[in-house]
Every structure is written in C-alpha cells, then in structure tokens.
Amino acid sequence: MTIPITYSLARQNPQTEIVFLTKPSLKKLFFNAPENFRLITLDSNDKHKGFYGLFRLFLELRQEKFDAVIDLHSVLRSHILSKLFWLSGVKTATIHKGRAEKERLTHKHDKHFKQLPTSFDRYLKTFHDAGIDFKPDFESIFVSGKGDLSLLQDFLPAKTEKWIGIAPFAKHQGKIYPLDKMEQVVKILAEEKIRIFLFGGGDAEQAILEEWANSYPNTICTIGKINMEKELHLMSHLDGMITMDSGNMHMASLVNCPVISIWGATHPFAGFYGWKQAKENAVQLDLSCRPCSVFGDKPCHRADYACLNQITPGAIVAQIKRRFLNH
Description:
It contains eleven helices and ten strands. It is an alpha/beta fold. It is globular and about 65 Å long. The two termini are about 30 Å apart.
C-alpha cells in the first residue's frame, strides 16, 4: 500500500532520490520502480538483529546523508531508528496509524462506525508533516498501463474472451469466504464464455485450486506456473478480479485492475481498501457485529462467521456479471 504514494513522489520529483528500507522478503514487490527509487533491505536475523544490530543499521544509513526520514511503519524498531536520526539533526516524521480509533471501530459494543482515514491518506499526511507536499497520481506499476503478455506466452492462451481472476484466500479465517461457496462461484462462472485464473500461494492452496481447475472448464491455476512479477503482468490484462480483503486485492490495485472484494470480519472503514477501487465493489453484509477485527485475526463473537457464510454465491456471481460481464 506504500507503492502508490512513494512511486508518485518519485515520479513527480526525478531530482529527488527515494531510499526505501524494507525486509528482503518484500523486495520482489517493488519492481518496475522509478529510476530514483532505491531499495535497502534489513537483515533482522543477523547483522541488524537486536538493539546493537539496529544501531549498526543506523550507522550504515547515516552514510546516505538523508534530508528527511519518513517512518511509514510505526513499530518499535522504526521508532528507534527515527529517534536516532532526529537526535543527529535529520528531519523526521512518523505515521499516525489511528490504533485507538480502529479499536473503537471494532468494539463488540458501542462501535464508532465511520470511515477512518485510509492508509494512503495516513502515508501522504506523514510526508506532508515532513514538509514534502505532493498529490499522488499513481495509476499502475506499469507506466504504459499494461504489463507485457509476451512474458507469459508459454502459459497463456490467446485472449478471445473475458478474463477474470479469483483469489479466494487470505491470511486469517475472518477474511476468507467459505471455500465450498467460492467453488460454487467458480462452477457458475465456468459456464460463461470466460477464462478464469485462480491465484494463491503454497502447497495447500495449490492443491485446492488445481482441483478446481481440473473440475471446471476454462479454469487455470496460476500457482507454481508463474512468479509474483508475472502475476502482476497477467492481472493488468484481466477484466476484473474477485478477492478477499487480502494482498491480492492490493496487487490487482497496483496494476489498475478493477476488484470485487469480499469482506467478513473486517471492513473498508478501517482504511485498508484497495487503491482507487470503487466503493460499490465491496461485497459485505450489514451486521451489527461488523467489523469485529481490524485484520480478521480475532475469533468470531457469534462462532458462526455469519458475515461470510450469509453471503450467497449467487450474490457474488450477480455482482461479477453486472460489473465485469455486462449482464
């Protein structure tokens, strides 16, 4: 979610170098970056482990002679780094994540049910707090708007029909539409003249999606066939995606692919909706218990996940047909 903001800043200010500190596992997300956008990775398992390792990292970063340090993470480690830079005379700004207001939004009783600032709003305000003013204009990781399908020519059929992506998984149970119901969505859509691409990761998810792909016509499981970068190239050419409140919603948003997202325990009001996604494309139920969790990791108060189980496959298919298939 930092990419639309930081890439906008970099592209609008080619004379300014943006140095982004992240974990090695996330480095693969930041591809096709502007020329003035550079990644540095944190070795938290060895060289930068613990306080002394963090201080070593500070000494390394100080050699960059930053004009400003922007903390978009707001955790103990980033707070310490920011404080060290502040003490050395560098301008700093730290994101206000709104943890208290998110907690009130998810209270079991007496919810403060309202739209909170989005993460994008909070990132932008943090830059503004440091005196860095700009308006994000990000459309896609691909400057031309679309990825290169020639990179997938050994995997993709020719596009002669609508292409729809489905990403049925998320990190926590409170964000996953029941898989038996999602399979029904796939089954119904497979009867249309469309091509379905299934997205996920890991052996367990691959086993499920391969079974679906083998059971229904014109359905392809992407796991194990293309890497994350090629997934983004493919997503940029899809007519639409169906996702949970998940990383795939944000990946599709990075390539300007319209997304129908399914929400259970979480809610767009917490501020984690996809970049420039249409609000009306969020499929969700109006239940008094929602949202009960910011990240979907808390047990269901009702123990039945009604927020997800009461959404019918038919309602999702109708939304897909209306939005993507012009039915």
